[in-house]
Structure formats: structure tokens, C-alpha cells
Amino acid sequence: MKILRLIDQCIDSFEKRIFLFIFFLCLYWLWQNVWQLILFGKLFFVTDYESLFHIQSTLSMYQSSVFVRILYYVISNPTLNVFRLISCIKLIDILAIAGVILLIKKFRIVVIFNGIKYVWGLFWVVKALNSKSVYLVISCLKWLSLGLFISMLIVSIVLLYTLTKMIADYDGFVHEL
Known about the structure:
With about 180 residues, this protein is an all-alpha fold. It has helices spanning about 1-10, 15-45, 50-60, 65-75, 80-85, 90-100, 110-130, 135-170, 170-175. The chain has one domain (about 25-175). Helices cover about 80% and strands about 0% of the residues. Helix 2 (about 15-45) packs antiparallel against helix 8 (about 135-170) and helix 2 (about 15-45) packs across helix 9. Keywords: Membrane, Transmembrane, Transmembrane helix.
């Protein structure tokens, strides 16, 4: 009971609750980006068929990222099932998407770079699927990973900057909303 009263005293206003929501949402987005940065950094160094399958065998380590979970499902299964694809998305991912929709004005640059990430990724995935040899697929994966790595790095830097700005200027940030 004392813990509940302490929490109630610390988060007693609407502004504090909104601040905590945005703070944890930014931390979640940053967590997603870190896992994607690690994956795309490793994917850039794929050079042959063997290293490509090594990456596929280690993809299960990156289950923290929704993007990687969907990618792992697509690579691991010979047929695509929409319901199984949707099952890769968890409740926290839906809440993060809702947060993006609610805060689209505040985090415009993050939304723009995530849009660039998905367009770039879709382009290179389609190009890789139409490739005639494994070496062309590996070349497409290098370009895919390079573009996505740069995009995720920019988004991560923006999120870190936003988090530090939020903490440093708590009153100004809350009243801007």
C-alpha cells in the first residue's frame, strides 16, 4: 500500500503521466533501433552463401525487434500466412504504433526516417527476390543493410537527443504538448 501511495504522489498530474508515457515510448523506440542497428551492421558483412545462412541461424536472438521478428518469419517459412505474420506483432508493438500516431507532430523526423527505412527496405527486398543468383542477393542485402543502418542510426541519435532534451527541460517539454 505504501508503494501505491508513493507512486500516486510521484505521478499526481496529467503532465507527469504524459511525460512518463513519452519517455518510455522513446526508450522503447530506442530499444527497437538498437537491435535493428546490430542486425543491419552484421548483415552488411555477409559475403557468401554460408555467412548468409549463419545470419539466418542467429536471427532468433533478435526477437526484441518487431521488424526483425517479421523478417525472421518471412525468411524461415517457405509460405506466407497473413495470420502468422500478424502474430509476430505483440501488444507492446501496437502501443508503440499508437504512440507514433499520437505524437506524429512531435516526432516528425523519426516518422520520416522510419518511412524512408520501409520504402528502402521494400525496394531492396523486391530487387533481391527477383535476383538470379545468390551473389546478386548478397549485393542487394549489402545495400539494404547499409541504407537501413544509416536510417536507424539517425533515428537513434534523434531519439537520444530528444530523451536528453526531455529530461533537461521537463517543464518546457510538458507544456509544449
